[in-house]
Amino acid sequence: MVMKKQVLYTNVFPAASWKIAFFVEALFSFMLALVYLVNYFSVKTKASIAMAVGLSFFVIEVFSNDINGSSFHFIKTLVAALFKGGEALNGIWVYIGAGVAGALMAALVYVAFAKLQKTIKK
Question: pTM of the predicted model, to two decimals?
Answer without folding.
Answer: 0.74
